[in-house]
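Need a sequence for this fold. Nothing fancy.
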């Protein structure tokens, strides 16, 4: 006989009263129901205050949460290279998932100094974290093997917005990140659809994401048959934008540019206007990151990595790893960016 939602939820409460803290997967198996159905019922019971959820387990309100050692709530550490803009959204996603699961998030910031990574992780471990989300400072001039200690951490660890080099020890770690190559391809394909056969790339050189954007540009140009142009380096931020302006409409024939990141892309339109070039009438501009691109004049079309979802998915993966009864396969999760179409590339090629 098929149970109604009311009957299922009454049975769930009965089982939890008898057993104490119960994992949702075990609850579903014991009741002979689909896990998705039980999760939906548990969510409804938690919302009404009849149950307490804690990353994959349920208990009665006010009861002891056995998810962490000694019955305490789980504590998760997150190490990021900076706070503000891009990583704020990742932290927000991780925090939302932690709050929903009854876990606590502890933040560490290494300020884009690779030497700080280990010290900050040691501090997080000393605070008693049960698992770690780590965004190591991997840069083109920093060999990943310098941080192989991450592979030997005493708690489950998930890489965030970092892709393990093939064949490296890091490949044995779970990882969640944006597919930046796909994001660049979206931008180039859109510009090509507007008639641009040459797209200039202006990008940083000092971050891991910039390295991925540059690699994605080279591959995207090849796949779409666009004219390959030398990349303009913009380190530090804002430098060499005059070169970008001079190259647009110059002998390269480029009337479109992809800029990594928003901070530099926002400075480009005024410089172009000073040279008598209007966006998008004369030049199409696409930004990479989409943190503040919509605030530009004109609003910038932008590649939007799924930052919030990266943080959330990484936290959920880590909680599953911390609480699983048996080891499961390593997961490398790549989330696809979106392209937000706005005013700055609305014009066709000149």
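Here you go.
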């Amino acid at each position: 006989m098929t149970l109604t939602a009311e009957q299922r939820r009454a049975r769930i409460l009965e089982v939890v009263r008898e057993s104490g803290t119960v994992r949702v997967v075990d609850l579903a198996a014991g009741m002979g129901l689909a896990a998705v159905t039980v999760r939906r019922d548990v969510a409804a019971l938690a919302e009404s205050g009849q149950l307490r959820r804690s990353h994959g387990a349920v208990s009665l309100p006010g009861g002891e949460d056995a998810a962490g050692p000694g019955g305490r709530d789980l504590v998760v550490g997150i190490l990021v290279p900076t706070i503000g803009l891009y990583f704020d959204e990742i932290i927000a996603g991780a925090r939302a998932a932690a709050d929903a699961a009854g876990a606590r998030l502890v933040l560490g910031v290494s300020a884009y100094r690779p030497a700080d990574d280990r010290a900050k992780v040691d501090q997080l471990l000393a605070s008693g974290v049960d698992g770690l989300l780590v965004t190591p400072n991997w840069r083109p001039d920093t060999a990943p093997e310098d941080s192989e200690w991450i592979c030997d951490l005493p708690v489950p660890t998930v890489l965030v917005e970092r892709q393990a080099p093939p064949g490296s020890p890091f490949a044995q770690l779970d990882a969640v990140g944006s597919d930046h190559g796909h994001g660049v391809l979206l931008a180039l394909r859109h510009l090509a659809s507007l008639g641009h056969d040459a797209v200039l790339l202006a990008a940083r050189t000092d971050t891991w994401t910039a390295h991925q954007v540059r690699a994605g540009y080279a591959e995207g140009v090849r796949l779409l048959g666009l004219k390959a142009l030398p990349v303009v380096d913009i380190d530090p931020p804002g430098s060499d934008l005059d070169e970008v302006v001079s190259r647009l409409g110059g002998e390269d024939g480029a009337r479109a540019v992809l800029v990594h990141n928003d901070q530099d892309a926002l400075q480009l339109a005024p410089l172009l206007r000073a040279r008598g070039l209007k966006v998008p009438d004369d030049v199409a501009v696409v930004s990479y990151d989409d943190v503040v691109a919509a605030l530009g004049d004109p609003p910038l079309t932008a590649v939007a990595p799924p930052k919030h979802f990266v943080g959330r998915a990484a936290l959920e993966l880590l909680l599953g790893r911390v609480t699983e009864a048996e080891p499961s396969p390593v997961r490398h999760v790549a989330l696809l960016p979106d392209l937000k179409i706005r005013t700055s590339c609305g014009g066709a090629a000149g």
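For context: The first strand starts at residue 22 and ends at 23.
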